[in-house]
Amino acid sequence: MTKALIIGGGIAGPVTAMALQKAGIDSVVYEAHETGADDVGAFMTIMNNGFDALHAIDADKPVLEASFPADRAFFWSGSGKKLGEAPIGGGTAGAYGPHTIKRAELYRVLHEEATQRGIQIEHGERLDDVDTDLDQGVAAIFADGSRRKGDLLIGADGIHSATRVLIDPEAPEPRYTGTVVLCGYARQAPVDPVPGVYRMIYGKRVFFAYTTAPDGETWWFVNLPRPELSKAELAATSLEERKRQATALLRRDRSPAAGIVEASEQIRASNGYDIASTPRWHAGRMIVIGDAAHAAAPNAGHGASMAMEDAVVLAKCLRDMPEPVAAFRAYEQQRRERVERLVATSAKMGGTATPGPMKRLIRDMAISKRLKSGPRNTAAWLTQYHIDWDASCTSQRSSIADSR
Cβ atoms within 10 A of the Cβ of 386, count? Predict the structure, then answer.
C-alpha cells in the first residue's frame, strides 16, 4: 500500500488523510504544534462546497453538528442606514447552507474523526528538510533530527509552509494585505441576539461584522488597516489595547460595533495574508495543497472550503493515477484556475470593504442598488462546485466552466 506523509494538522491535513484512506492509501499526519495550530481563536464559515467535499468522504455530519447555520446577511452603512439584505453565498447556498464554527473546534472535530478512523496524527513534529535522494519515495526530516519515510509527501502546512519552500526555494512569500484581523467574543453584547444571520457594517473607517451563536454569545470580526505585526507584538498586545485600537476606528459609526468590542471577553488578532499565485505546487514526490499553495484573504469566507476540496480531489487523483507525478499534474490542472480566481476575488472584496472617504458614498449606493435588485448567482462557481467521488479523476470538470 502507498504511504503518504502529510505535513500539517490544521484543516487540509486530516481531511486529506481521511480522503486518502477512502482511496486505499495509508498516511500519517505530522503537526508542528503540540496541541493545535496558529490562529485558533478565530472563527470561519464553511460553505456548501466545503460540506460537499466532506460528504464525499463521509465526514460532513460531525462538522455540521459542531457548527451553526448563519445563511443570511443584513447590511448597514456607517451612518446607520440599512442598505439591504441578502442570502450568504449569493442565493446559491446549496444543500447545506453556510455554517459558522470556531477554528479550534473545527480542528478538534476533524482530529477526532480522523483518529476514530485509525489515522495516526503525531504532534510536535516540525518539518525541517526533506531527503529526495532515494530510490523510491521521500523522507521527511524533522527539527529534532528524526526521519520518516513515505512514498510521497503532502504539504498541508498553511500559509507559512515549510514544504512550499522546500519544493521551490524561490516560491513567493505570503503577501501582507495591509490589515490586522481581530476576532472577538462577547457574552453581554449590547445587541439583540438574532441567530442565523450576519450583520455587516460598512463603516466610515473599517468594515465590521457580527453574528450570534446558539448560546447567545456575539462573535465578531473587524479588519484594522495597520502595519504588519510580528509574532511577539501579536502575543504581547493586551485585551484592553486591542479594544482601544478597534473602538478608535468604530466610534464615529452609528452602529453597535464599538459597544460590542468594549463588551468582549476575548479578542484574537492575526495578520491578513494571501498568496496570489505559487508557480510550483509540486516537485518529484512532493506537493502543497490548501493555504500552503494558494492562500486567500478571509474576505470571501472560502479558505477552509477550498482546503477541503483540495484534499478530496488530490485523493481521487492519487487513487486513479498511482504514479504521484501524473496524479499531481492532473490535480493541478483541475484546481489552479479555480483557487487563483478565489484569491483574486477575495482580495477585491477586501478593497471594497475598507475604501477611502471619497469612495464611501458611491460604495454604499452601489451596495444598496445591488441588494435591491435581488440575489444573483454570482457565487455559484464557488458554492455549487461538486465532487463526484465515484467518477474518475480525469472526468472532474473545471468549476470555472461549470459556472458559465
Answer: 18
Alpha helices (H) along 144-290: 162-167, 231-236, 239-250, 257-262
Q: Please tell me the distance from the alpha carbon of residue 200 to that of residue 352, in angstroms, as a whole number.
A: 13
**Mind listing the pLDDT tens digit for each residue in 38-93?**
556 799 999 999 999 999 999 999 999 999 999 999 999 998 989 998 888 654 44
User: Span 3-69+99-174+275-353+376-402: which CATH code?
Assistant: 3.50.50.60
Predicted local distance difference test score (pLDDT) of residue 291: 96
What is the residue extent of each domain of the chain? 3-69+99-174+275-353+376-402, 176-274
Taking the CA atoms of residue 308, residue 111, residue 295 and residue 311 in that order, the dihedral angle to the nearest 10 degrees is -30
Q: Measured over all CA atoms, what is the biggest interatomic distance in the chain, rounded to whole angstroms?
A: 67
Non-local (6+) Cβ contacts of 399 within 8 A are 338, 381, 382, 385
pLDDT, tens only, 107-166: 999 999 999 999 999 999 999 999 998 878 999 999 999 999 999 999 999 999 999 999
HSE of 34, CA atoms in CB hemisphere, 13 A: 0
- Report which secondary-structure segment, H or E, holds 99: strand 99-102
Q: Helix or strand or coil: residue 307?
A: helix
Q: What is the CA radius of gyration of the chain?
A: 21
